[in-house]
Specification:
By secondary structure, this protein is an alpha/beta fold. The protein is built from 13 helices and 17 strands. The strands form 5 sheets. Strands 1, 4, 5, 6, 7, 8, 11, 12 and 15 form a 9-stranded mixed sheet that branches. Helix 8 packs antiparallel against helix 9 and helix 11 packs parallel to helix 12. The longest helix has 24 residues. It starts with 12 loop residues before the first helix and ends in a 15-residue tail after the last strand.
């Protein structure tokens, strides 16, 4: 069969619909970024950004706020007593707890002390974080809506408990573009403590682009093999041959895009080009030969071991140093339902020193002023016990969405302060509540973006990271 020349090809109903949808997408701003990652945020920057880049040290599984940062002497005094009914009335907990009535209060498992000029309370479980307390802003009044891990993490990352919406990094890449054309604007790294029995799956939708073009999704740096999957050329293919192959594919994609108007065709071409450039930039990124020994020592003994939290923290600094917009470092294993007195110690040992080192490293390089760092998980853990109080080795705490702590540093955050407060048991927020959408709005604000203006039209309505809520938390801004 002889095909007609393209100029004579009739427009099928399918192609007509594709072109119409492409025109609507263009009108909504979806394909605004060109090959040079031009900023799509015209009109969205009503104020100068305080932060050029963001590192989110996300602790999957939910660190226990009452054992780490939210000191409650009353909880220690009432250890072993039933939780008062007025603290839990009408509250929903996970199915592992069911009804919280009659549950016994559990004291912090290690002592707290005040640190720095700010007098911040930090557990002995976090000695390195305690030493940088005056660099941090502890937000102790966070609260959320989800009671299970994946929906709660999705809520933090995308503003929705249901997967499918663009995540924070995708929004930043879409709105702000990239400073370094040889590295992706949004990079993800994951880790989990060795030999842990508690941990969560790292779902790809934690860094997806949703209904934004797929080139804005996070690029995952792996802990083994090639740092980026399929980055190496196949055996027998030289870089020159790869270049010619990509040029030919780009020409075919241009023809397809001209016919269909599908923005994903352009996204594929952009991703091919990024992968080609990363073949040179990534080996340099992961080569630690230029790192002074005192810097490596600062991050701890696991810093050279790929796939560890320490290694990923150092990579995060190297990435933002080279212009990456957003680095999402995710570490699992904080889900201590029955291992509070064992695995919590391991989690703190693996994450405390690298987290503090990252702040010190950024500061000594002059990067902390314009790099925002956020540390925390998807919710907190219950002030009451999960398990048998007579069996200390099996003590645990369940999921707790009603109050928890995260800390922020650098990038326009007021250092050496504590914001918000919980009641005497660490159960409920009683002062300056901060919802997940409020934190998202604040992060975008620090990056120079108005969370109410950064929207994309999809399926007939405009969507944004903060859905229809969120207020910037101005008191914590420097």
């Amino acid at each position: 069969m002889t095909s007609r020349p393209r100029s004579d090809s009739p427009i099928s109903r399918r192609n007509m619909l594709r072109r119409s949808l492409a025109s609507l997408a263009t009108a909504s701003g979806l394909p605004l970024l060109g090959a040079q990652e031009k900023s799509a945020s015209a009109g969205l920057l009503p104020f100068p950004p305080k932060a050029k880049s963001l590192i989110y040290l996300f602790q999957n599984g939910a660190p226990t706020h009452v054992d780490l940062f939210d000191y409650k002497p009353e909880l220690a005094r009432r250890h072993g007593e039933p939780v008062p009914e007025e603290f839990i009335a009408g509250k929903r907990f996970s199915t592992m707890t069911g009804s919280a009535s009659g549950k016994l209060l559990l004291a912090p498992i290690e002592p707290f002390h005040q640190h720095g000029e700010s007098g911040a309370w930090v557990s002995e479980l976090m000695p390195h974080t305690a030493k940088i307390a005056d660099e941090l802003c502890f937000v102790k009044s966070l609260h959320t809506e989800a009671v299970n891990h994946a929906p709660a993490i999705s809520f933090f990352m995308s503003g929705s408990e249901m997967p499918g919406r663009p995540t924070l990094g995708a929004w930043l890449a879409y709105a702000l573009g990239n400073e370094n054309p040889n590295l992706p604007p949004f990079v993800v790294m994951t880790s989990i403590s060795k030999n842990t029995t508690c941990g969560q799956i790292f779902y790809d939708f934690y860094w997806e682009a949703g209904y934004l073009p797929s080139r804005f999704q996070g690029v995952k740096l792996r802990g083994g093999g090639d740092p980026v999957l399929y980055l190496s050329n196949p055996p027998g293919m030289s870089r020159e041959v790869r270049r010619g192959l990509l040029d030919d594919i780009a020409a075919l994609n241009d023809m397809t895009h001209e016919r269909s108007g599908d923005p994903e065709v352009a996204a594929r071409s952009a991703q091919y080009e990024m992968a080609y450039r990363m073949q040179e930039s990534v080996p340099e990124l992961v080569d630690l030969a230029d790192e002074p020994q005192h810097v490596l020592d600062m991050y701890g003994p696991q810093v050279k071991e790929r796939g560890t939290f320490a290694y990923n923290c150092l990579m995060a600094r190297r990435l933002v140093e080279r212009g990456t917009r957003y680095v999402q470092v995710m570490h699992a294993g904080w889900d201590q339902h029955n291992s509070l007195t064992t695995e919590l110690y391991t989690q703190c040992e693996d994450t405390d020193q690298p987290s503090a080192a990252l702040i010190k490293d950024l500061k000594q390089r002059g990067l902390l002023d314009d790099t925002l760092v956020v540390w925390g998980g998807e919710f907190g853990r219950t002030p009451f016990l999960q398990g048998d109080i007579k069996d200390r080795k099996r003590w645990g705490r369940d999921h707790h969405p009603y109050a928890f702590t995260q800390w922020l540093a650098g990038g326009g955050i007021k250092p050496g302060m504590t914001y918000g407060a919980t009641d005497e048991l660490g159960m409920n927020v009683i002062e300056n509540p901060v919802h997940v959408h409020d934190l998202q709005a604040t992060i975008l604000h620090l990056m120079g973006l108005d969370h109410e203006l950064l929207t994309v039209k999809h399926q007939g309505r405009r969507f944004r990271l903060t859905d229809v809520a969120g207020e910037v938390c101005h008191p914590i801004l420097a």
